[in-house]
Write a structure and sequence with these properties.
This protein is an alpha/beta fold. The protein has 11 helices and 10 strands. The radius of gyration is 23 Å and the shape is globular.
Length: 312
């Protein structure tokens, strides 16, 4: 924090004072001093604004629940999960007929569970139970979103599946999309899941910050980490990566880097479409990737040394 203050606050102030002292010079020099002064002040203002407003940029929760799985003709159970720090987290459990696996779904940074009905429907058609939850501060969940809070929320969902529903860990697939991919990867370093699916994943919060603000010292004032790149090598179950080369928010290359850092067995599927609709735009390619992955998990369970790598 001190280092950030010195670079983003004190240093620009000292430069401003020095520039103001030299402002009495005339002609072209004075104009150059003025331009430099404006740049330094603007840089400082932007830096501090980004520092204090980061949570608003990162988390975009919506409180209103406008639809439920009932609206797409799916039966579901409305749940209130209890986190280790005492908050109640809203969740839906959507069962599928003759399901072999249950998906624990960690959604992205915007909206709430209502905005994931398309994904819930796809998972249900694949014959997968689904537990989806809203992070603290989203939908009907208590609290305000924080990085550690999102990790606690995911763990609460895992504990509900294993303790309350008595679902064996090797029958649970942890699935995360965008921000949720980092949450899912973090969770899977702590539990023995059947598999992990990372869709539109980023390497770290810092790397995303550099993409949108390449001119700022992101690492110095970053208040979050979400370091998926550190989590992935510590995951010891099969991992499926899904990403679109057309993703306008999270670069395709981020998932490639994560894929290279991951342990075997692993698989990479390239889809099409934007960050938010790639899973819909790609249609059968997307659903077939899931079907193939489910078959692979079944084989892997029988023969743990099976290696599978594919980029398509």
């Amino acid at each position: 924090m001190l280092r950030r203050f010195l670079i983003i606050g004190v240093l620009p102030a000292l430069c401003t004072l020095a520039l103001a002292t030299g402002y009495q010079k005339s002609g072209v020099v004075a104009v150059l001093w003025t331009i430099l002064l404006i740049i330094i002040i603007a840089y400082s203002v932007v830096g501090w604004s980004l520092y204090f407003l980061q949570a608003r940029f990162l988390y975009s929760p919506v409180r209103e629940i406008t639809y439920t799985p009932t609206d797409i003709k799916l039966a579901f159970e409305k749940i209130a999960l209890k986190t280790d720090d005492g908050l109640k987290i809203a969740a839906w459990y959507i069962p599928a007929d003759n399901a072999r696996y249950t998906v624990l779904f960690c959604h992205g940074n915007a909206g709430n569970m209502t905005h994931r009905l398309d994904s819930i429907n796809i998972l249900n058609e694949l014959g997968l139970n689904c537990l989806i939850f809203d992070y603290r501060g989203y939908g009907d969940s208590q609290g305000r979103p924080t990085e550690q809070g999102t990790y606690l929320d995911a763990m609460a969902a895992w504990q509900w599946l294993t303790n309350k529903k008595r679902i064996a860990p090797d029958r649970i697939i942890v699935f995360g999309r965008s921000l949720g991919a980092s949450v899912a990867a973090n969770l899977t370093t702590k539990v023995n899941a059947a598999a992990l699916v990372l869709e539109s994943a980023f390497t770290s919060y810092d790397d995303i910050g550099k993409k949108f603000y390449p001119y700022m010292p992101v690492r110095l004032f970053a208040r979050f980490h979400y370091n998926t790149f550190d989590y992935v090598p510590n995951v010891h179950c099969p991992i499926l990566f899904i990403h679109s080369r057309n993703d306008e928010i999270v670069p395709f290359e981020f998932s490639l880097r994560l894929y290279e850092a991951a342990n075997e067995p692993k698989k990479f599927i390239e889809v099409s479409g934007s960050h938010n609709d790639g899973f819909l735009f790609s249609g059968k390619i997307y659903t077939q990737a899931w079907k193939d992955w489910l078959s692979h998990i079944a084989v892997e369970k029988v023969a743990p040394n099976t290696r599978l790598k594919q980029i398509s």
